[in-house]
Amino acid sequence: MNCPGCGKEIPDVYAGVRCPSCGAPLTPGAGAPGAPRPEAAGIPWENRNRLGFFPSLFGTMRACLFEASDFFENMPKRENLGSAIGYILLLGWIGALGGILWNVLLQGAQHAALRNLGMQPPAAMPAAIGFAVYAGLIVLFPLILLLALFIWSAILHVVLWILGGAKEGFEATVRVYCYAAGSTAIFQWVPICGGLVGFIWSLVLQIIGLARVHQIGTGKAAVAVLLPLALCCALLLALCIAFAGFFLAAMRGAAA
Asked: Which CA distances in Å does 207 have to 129, 204, 221, 233?
């Protein structure tokens, strides 16, 4: 018998209902000679050669955002990692364009709001320098996103391992993050609050995805996602307090 998802041979003694390689549901008799090959299990984006680029892209976004439980339940845990990475790089880059666009368009309103609060806005960069900075960000963002992808996925997987919840390989964790963060990156095109909404939605999708893929409780998956963020926030707060203390001490010394 062969897996209907990845095509690999399944040992006759294997009693599971899903492929041990890709996680696709196994159909009895699917690998028999002359039997019709079922539709490939998994997600539309990884079948874009058959479905078409845009239908598979929008179909994956819709399923991940609004049918997350079923989406991650049916997501192959292995194979096609390059497709998952390509998905987040594409949508992450498109989302970044939206974020940069709104940052430029709303810069004047941000400065006016700071002045109304009695704060002095930062000095504006010369147009040529600003253009160079934004152009550099647009070009380098895929590389930055790729580094962030593997760093954050490694953190998630290590925390899962500590909690005893890393029941699948690192690749499965990477795939969860790729589709969760990639599907929500487009929210950056919504002005003002779009980035925040996308970030929160991405965390929710990561929790659901890790729970389904690693077959663990939602609570344990939530701890794996939120604990590193809480530690980072605590560290940042400690640094801010230390800096404020150092600044106040320096001011008192200068006054004396």
From this structure: 40, 5, 5, 19
Q: Tell me which residue of 12, 8, 1, 9 sits closest to 35, measured CA to CA.
A: 1
- Per-residue confidence (pLDDT) for residue 126, from 0 to 100: 73
Domain count for the chain? 1
Residue pair 180/190 in contact by the 8 Å Cβ criterion:
no
Report the chain's terminal Cα–Cα distance, integer Å: 84
Q: Residue 216: pLDDT above 90?
A: yes
Which amino acid belongs to residue 163? L
pTM: 0.76
Tell me what the mean pLDDT of segment 43-64 comes to.
Answer: 93
Q: Give me the domain span that covers residue 58.
A: 44-255
* Higher-confidence position of 8 and 213: 213
Residue 12 phi/psi, 5-degree rounding, is -65, -25
Number of helical (H) and strand (E) elements in the chain, helices listed first: 9, 0
**Residue 105 within a domain:** yes
Burial class (CB in 10 A: 0-12, 13-18, 19+), 230: exposed
In a domain? residue 31: no
Residue 2 DSSP SS3: strand
Please report where in the chains the tokens 């010369």 appear, as a residue.
126
